[in-house]
Design goal:
mainly alpha
């Protein structure tokens, strides 16, 4: 199985520092509306003026930060498609890395996305539509290849189509994200294991 080809998003070290600074602020539960550009600059360890050399607004920082985080996570999943991947083993590692916040800043992203107004989300969606569509295309191709491998490996019931498999995984992950948001804390390891068990039991032959 060949690795998917795509043009990775490229950001400078200072841009990445800005993203990480925003994620650290959001991880404390701070609403996006209460975060100022100066707060992000301070958290990133760079000057506010320097930040404006790369971004025109904090909304642009947010949009690019989300794209950056998704691109990194997708890149990791695409790397797992080398050879004949195991869906279960990959998902187990993926969930473990999410629980430890090693792959995606789950807590920060959850609070950021939930605290952005509907109008802001719509504006950002329109402005970054092309990039988001590319992310979505990569995600769909990645899912398809994992599901195909899962059926060949006997990990997924052949009678289950891709839409059902995607629904099971996405709904389980969003359910966990919702619990984190309501509890204002990262999910306990036992809860992430429950997500894993739910997915495996729903998909197995």
């Amino acid at each position: 199985m060949s690795r998917m080809k795509y043009e990775p998003l490229r950001y400078s070290p200072k841009e990445v520092a800005a993203f990480d600074g925003l994620f650290r602020l959001a991880a404390t539960g701070k609403q996006f509306s209460n975060i100022k550009v100066q707060d992000i600059a301070t958290a990133a360890g760079i000057g506010k003026g320097t930040l404006y050399e790369y971004f025109s607004s904090k909304e642009e920082i947010l949009a690019c930060a989300v794209l950056y985080a998704l691109d990194r996570a997708l890149g990791w999943l695409e790397d797992q498609l080398q050879g004949e991947p195991s869906l279960y083993r990959t998902l187990e590692t993926f969930l473990d890395m999410l629980e430890k916040e090693q792959l995606l800043p789950v807590t920060a992203l959850t609070f950021l996305i939930s605290s952005v107004s509907g109008q802001q989300k719509q504006e950002l969606k329109q402005q970054y539509q092309e990039r988001m569509q590319e992310i979505f295309r990569r995600m769909q191709l990645c899912e398809k290849q994992f599901f195909e491998a899962g059926r060949r490996n006997g990990e997924i019931d052949p009678a289950l189509d891709d839409s059902f498999c995607e629904y099971v995984i996405v709904s389980s992950l969003f359910g966990m994200a919702g619990r984190n948001l309501c509890a204002h804390q990262q999910g306990r390891k036992s809860e992430w294991k429950l997500v894993q068990q739910m997915v495996f039991r729903a998909l197995r032959p």
